[in-house]
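Apologies for my clumsy wording, but are you able to produce some protein sequence, whichever is easiest, and the tokens describing how it folds?
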Amino acid sequence: MKILIVGPSPYMQHDPGLTVREFIENYCSELDITGCFYHHDFGKIPIKYDSDFTFNNLSIKSKWVNPSEKDGSVILLYDMLMEEKYDMILSFCTPLELDFIRAAIGTSSVVCPWMHVMTMSNGIHDLKMVDALNAPDYIFSYSEYQINSINKIAGVPMHKMELLERSFNFPDYKGNKLLGAVCGGWNSESYNLKSVFQTLEDFDIPIKCLSNYFELGDFDLDLLSSQHLYNHKKNDLFCEDFSSVFVKPEYSKWDYYIDSMSIFIDMSMQQGSCRSLHRAYSSGSTCFVIDTPRHREFAPVSDRFILINSNTFFSASGCRLYVPDHLDFYVKLSKKLEGPYSAICNTKLGEKKHINIKKDFNNLYCKITNGIKERIFSDFESIT
């Protein structure tokens, strides 16, 4: 079966590129996969626009969107659909990026089943997304809340959507937990780093901020830290190793902090950093995250997973924004840091069981391999 994957660059070191790469790595030997990739940074990883995506001594035929070309995503996908015949299109992207795929498929007049995996688990509230969300023949999501939201707002039938499991495979961490906090996120408004710094300034504990510190962002992080975390030296606060979407330090130099610190804080309103969050929780850290529908879903019934109340706003573009409640954040962090909680310092961690990441996509793979044969795409069948 010949599958055309449309999604962000699998060379990304963070979601959602890692999700695309995981699927390719698991199933490239079982499916004939071709890639159409966008959001690639040619400056950090120079490749030709028709270079194969290579990994682990294997490769798949790929083409890459030229970011300098106007409407490059639509044009490239259109050309690929006209050049070859595919048994199925499988896309990985946010609801906002569905439009360019819908445009390319529509203008090419190609009749081909289209399956889509949501890479962001926010709810759907914008009526402008209705047409795009009804375009795929089948939708997968990691969030039950998102599926219900798509059904109610966009009118996509429930039988055309399915929930994907999400598990992660991390190296075992057997070191000692340190009494301190690590906060993660990109230097952008959506990760609420300013709110995090403002809350942490009243606590005398070691702090490490894992961000794209050496890149431009929404905040002057030096100024922000000098205003709120003036007791912490810059070299101690920010990780010295460079990180970006396409460049990430080795595990021992970066994710070590996520494993070893006793408190993990991620106030992302986009519910990003799922991998970092799961890594921190599985290593025994207490995790503070903003209270959004998606976080409520996968929050275990545990006193080590703490939801911070949020205030909800809408941006000019119609995106839902979650901003943490400063007082609620302060009170809950204070309770965790007082009394017996300090005993977590130097607590030895036991071994953790590895999870086979392949099961994440098991129901997706079954739909792909059996979908055409079983005619699960009712709308597609009516077209043909």
Summary: The radius of gyration is 22 Å. The domain at 178-344 is CATH 3.40.50.2000 (Rossmann fold).
